Amino acid sequence: MEFMDGTWKKEVSSWEDIVNDQNLNRQALVEGAVHSIRNMGDVAFVILRRREGLFQTVLESGTGNVTVHELKEAMTVRMSGILREEERAPHGRELRIRQVEILSAPAEPLPLPIDKWKLNTSLEAKLNYRSVSLRNIKERAHFKIQEGLTRAFRDYLHGQGFTEIHTPKIGARGAEGGANMFRLSYFHKPAVLAQSPQFYKQMMVGVFDRVFETGPVFRAEKHNTKRHLNEYTSLDFEMGYIDSFEEIMAMETGFLQYAMRLLEKDYAKELEILKIELPDVSRIPSVRFDKAKQLVSEKYHRKIRNPFDLEPEEEALIGQYFKEEYDADFVFVTHYPSKKRPFYAMDDPQDSRYTLSFDLLFHGLEVTTGGQRIHDYRCLLEKLEARGMEQEGMEQYLDTFKHGMPPHGGLGIGLERLTMQLLGEDNVREACLFPRDMNRLEP
C-alpha cells in the first residue's frame, strides 16, 4: 500500500537548477512545448515554451536520437542533454540535446503563427483560437499581469483585516435594479444572474466587518463597444465602521500602491515584455462630479449636455485634464447625482441631490464605482418609497438592517478594464481570457 505525503520526486530539472551556474556543463532534463524551430542545416535551435518563459535547446546533426525533421511545433517533449552557457540565448542558457522523448504530437499545424513576437492577426481570429493564441508570449503576459492585480487585491485586503467571501451568482432579483439582468428559469422559478454581490457583501459586513470577493458578474446590456462585456470579473470589497466614504477611496489607493509594488517586484519580466510603464499612484487627486464637468467644459470648450451622468467623452477629457494639470493617471470623481446611483447609496446630508459616492477613472475610463451605503433601516425604506420601488425579493436583505448595521461602504473594480488600461490596450476583450459579449458565447 502506498501513502501520499505531499511530495513527489521528479527527475526533471527545475528552473532554479537550469539558471544555477553550478549546473553548467552538467546533465539536465527539461520539459516543455516546442514553440519554434530554426533549422540551420547542421544545427537546429529548438525553442521550448515553459511557464517561466522561452528556453533554447540545440540539436546538432547526428548527436541525438531524433532528427530535426521529426520535431514539430506544438509538440510537448522531454529532453536531456548538457547545460551550456550562451549569452545570446534567453536567460543565458541552452541545452545541447542528447535524447528526446516525445510526450505528444499535434494532429495538424497551428492555425496562428504563435512563435512571432507580435501576433499580427485580427482580434476576432485571436478570440476564435483563444487557447492557441494565448500561447504567444506577449498574449500570455497580459494575463500574468492580470494575475498580479488579483493577487495584490487578495493579499492587500487580507493584510487589512478583510475576510474573503463567496456569494451566489444565481438569485431571485438583481442588486442594481433596472432591466439589464439575464433572466432564467431555476427549477420552474424565475431567477436572475447576479449583477453584483452588493446585497450579500453588505449583509456580511454585519458578520465580519470587512469582506471582499473576486468573482463574475453579469450585465444584460446591449452594448457592442470596446469597453463593455456582458460577463466580467469584479473585485469587490465592503467595509464597516467607516468615518467617511473617503476612507473607501483611501483603501483603494492603498491597494493600487501595493499592486504596483508587487508588479514591479514579481512581474518585471512581463512588464518588460509588454513595455509597460507603471502609473504613479502615490497620490490620487479627487474632484467633485459637478466640478469635474465644469473644468473640462471650460478648458476644452465642450457644452455640458447631461448634468446627471458622465458621457464617455467627458470621462476621457477628465482623464486628459488631470494628466495635463497634475500628471495624474488616476482621478476620483466624487458626489455623483442621486438619481444615477442605486437606492442604497447614501445621499449627501449637505445636498440630497448628490451622493457620498465616487468613480475612479484610469486614463479617462471608469474602472471603479463605490461609495457609502445607507445603514439605517428606516432611511432605506424611505429611499425605496421615494423611488417607487417594491420590497418584494429584498426582504432578507432589508431584515439585516432591522437588527443593526454599522456605517459602511465599499466598491467594485472591473478587473478587465483595469487590466486593459494598464496594458494600454483599446479593447477590453484583449484583457479577458474568454470574452462574453452580444455576439460571442464561444470558446
How would you sum up this structure, described in words?
The protein has 443 residues and is an alpha+beta fold. It has twelve helices and 18 strands. It has helices at 15-19, 123-128, 130-133, 137-159, 198-208, 246-266, 268-274, 289-300, 312-326, 377-386, 395-402, 415-423; strands at 27-39, 43-50, 53-60, 76-85, 93-104, 163-164, 170-171, 183-186, 189-193, 210-218, 231-240, 286-288, 330-334, 347-348, 351-355, 357-362, 365-372, 408-414. The strands form four sheets. The chain has an eight-stranded mixed β-sheet with strand order 6-10-11-18-17-16-13-12, with helices on both faces. A hairpin with a 2-residue loop joins strand 16 (357-362) and strand 17. Helix 4 packs across helix 7 (268-274), helix 4 packs across helix 12 (415-423) and helix 8 crosses helix 9 (312-326). The relative contact order is 0.10. The model has no long low-confidence stretch (mean pLDDT 94).
